[in-house]
Amino acid sequence: MRNKKINLGDLIFILFYKFNGEIRGSTSLQKLIDIIRLDSELEIDVNYSPYDFGDFSPQSNDVVQVFVDNSWIAKEKVELGDDIFLDVYRLTENGWKIAKTIYQNLLSKELENFKILDNFKDKKQKEILAYSYFWFPITAMKSKIKDKIFKRTQIFTFLSGELEEEYNNIKSSGNSIKKVIYESWKC
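Given the sequence above, the corresponding structure tokens read:
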């Protein structure tokens, strides 16, 4: 059962605060919001639907654009090579003040919902996608890159220690792997 409704704008500020003011790639931001939506007790006022890179919410992009327009977030295009670019978003000074205030006003029970984000602080976009696709497979049903992400040699590299830890947690909880994966398909 969801214990608290959270505003999408507040959630985005909290994500930036947890990630030291910087998120690399709008796909990463979308996946982080989606992971909180699917893996926490929070009810988020956002609608997701399957799309090219997994679950997608135009609302999230709209909120980020409002933040850019209000100079709370700065957006920079970074070239990765071969004419491939990545949008890098950073909190501005005013954005930091807002994010810090929102984060510091969370109750300890609410903070528990964001602990999962600690697993992604040093992860690349592919690793965040791998986690999202593996634990919430229905979100990848229309993804154009799911076959690339799900290559056997890569999925276990992306999920290395965390996958084994999750497996052991499931075993010790008394649930079956089959039941947990089945439940993850019910979004």
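The first helix runs from residue 8 to 18. Try to locate this feature in the token string yourself.
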